[in-house]
Structure formats: structure tokens, C-alpha cells
Amino acid sequence: MTKTGKTSMHRRKINRFFGKNSRQGNWWAALLIIIATILLLLVKSDDFATPQNASNLLAQAMPLIIVAIGQMIVIILAGMDLSVGSVMSLTTAILALDGSPYALIPLVFLAAICVGLVNGVAIVKLNVHPIIATLSTQFIVLGIAQLLRPVAGGSVPDFVVTIVTGSVLGVPAPVFWGIVIVGLGWKIVHGSRFGLHLFAIGGGNASGQLDTAHNFGLKDERNIVLAYVISAGFAALAGLFIAGRIASGDPSVGSQFALDSITAVAIGGTQLSGGVGGLHGTIIGAILMSLLANGMNLANLSAFLQGAIKGVILLLVVGLQSRKKMGL
What we know:
Elements: H1 3-17, H2 28-44, H3 51-76, H4 84-95, H5 101-124, H6 130-148, H7 158-165, E1 167-168, E2 171-172, H8 173-190, H9 193-207, H10 212-215, H11 220-246, H12 257-267, H13 279-298, H14 303-320
Antiparallel strand pairs: 1-2
Helix pairs in contact: 2-13, 3-8, 3-9, 3-11, 3-12, 3-13, 4-5, 4-6, 4-11, 5-6, 5-11, 7-11, 8-9, 9-11, 12-13, 12-14
């Protein structure tokens, strides 16, 4: 290979790493906002830089990072999963049942697979819009969670609490969760043939050429169903993390995560029209959302006002995306 060719190859690798290509979206703005937010919180709050708050921030960010990665996978397909929050709630409700963790944890992921399958099949076989399909399953799953655990309470297995709140050689467990989850997300989205298919199918949807990927031999329906199953699986992982953190079941604990995960994905540069997005931006978006929530908690803002602010952020982010690309 010539020197020019090697230089070009290295430049492409660097650009891929920093997200400087159209497929991964523009996440630099979110990174700059994170830096500005941290500086502002350092100035405005004496409690922000404390070790206790840093630990709380890490634990607070982890469930959103996990569920946002799953949400990103279906958004790259030009879909959306509104059922992730109810899957998280159902996960805590199942784990709070009397039983061995070796039975309850597989049951959690079996339930998540069923939810993902229902979402995927409804979309590809019944031609139901993703928002309607996942909104329907959101209420169904939420009803099941409330049947299992009408009010918050019960206790989850000690094993779950340990793997979430424990530490290894002084390193908090959430750090290991982050390494594993990010590695898994990277492999799925950027390191597998399935990930390439996601971008191809989503890109076709974004351009209005719905059959483009299919014409190249990609099995659209199978990949779409699998994407929703994976999204539900990540939601179950996030629910398991929260269950370990609160050490109990709660049928409403996941209610905020549908909006938060979509906002985090959009802030990170993923186009809601599909075909453009990346893990870099999603993680940055989730961290930014967690920083804002942490700052609003330190400022003692009410939960209602925090929800309104998050809604405004999502509206602004979506409004700044290309309307042509969104098919509007």
C-alpha cells in the first residue's frame, strides 16, 4: 500500500472513531454541552464535585445508557420503542417475586423476548406503525407489572443487589456494567453484519426507498423483529440494574425512560428518520441527560418541571433535525 493510501486509511479510522461521518451523526454539539454543563454545575453547586454525588451520577446514568443503546438500534431502523420503560418496570416486578435468582433472571429475559417479538411481529406482519405497536405493548406490559406488584415493595434477590451495588478491588460495579454494555452495543451496531443491515434498512426508510435493502438480499422483516427483541433485552438489563439499586420491585419505576431514551438518542445525533446514528452519540446523549437530571435534583426542581424541561429539549432536538430527512 502506498503512503498516500495508508494516510487515507488512518484518516478514515480516526473519523470513524470520532464520529466524523454522516452515518454516525453529529454528536459533537452534545459533547460541548456536556462540558459546559459540568463547568456550570461546578460553579453553581458545591455538592456536584463530591465523591458521593459522582457515585450517584454514575449509578443514575447507567440505566439510561443501557436502555438508550437498545432504543438507538430501533431508531436507526426508523422505528421507535415506547415499551422500554414498562419492560424495565416489569423486570423489577418479576425480580421481587419469591424465588431463586437462577429462575427469576431467565424469566425476566424470556418476558423481554416475548415483548420484543410482539412489537416486531405487529410492525412487520400486521403493518402497525412502530409508535402505535409499542405504545400498545407499553400499556399491556405495564398492566402485567401492576398485577404482579400493585405497589412498590418486596425484595429482589441478594445476588442482584450485589452485582449492581458491589465492587471489585475497590472499583464500583457500575463501571464494569458500563464496560460490558458499551462493548456489547459496539459489537451489535458497529462490529457485526446485523449492524450494517440496520443502517441499510434505516437508510432506505429515510430516503423513501423502502425496498432498497431488500433488493440487496437483506431480510428486512427478520432484522426488524430482531432489533425490537434486542431493544427489549437492553430494557430488561436496565430494569435489572435498577432493581438491584432500589432492592425492590416498582411497577412505575421505568415510566420516564421511554422519553429519556429517545431524547438521549436524538441528542447524540441519531436521526429519528433512520439510517444515521452511532454508539458514541447515544452514550454522550445519555450522559448529558443524566447530568441535567442530576443538576435539576441538586436545584430541587419538582419532578413535573423536570419532565417539562425534558419535553422541551426533545422538541428542540427533533426540530433541529432535517425535516426532509425525517420525511416531513
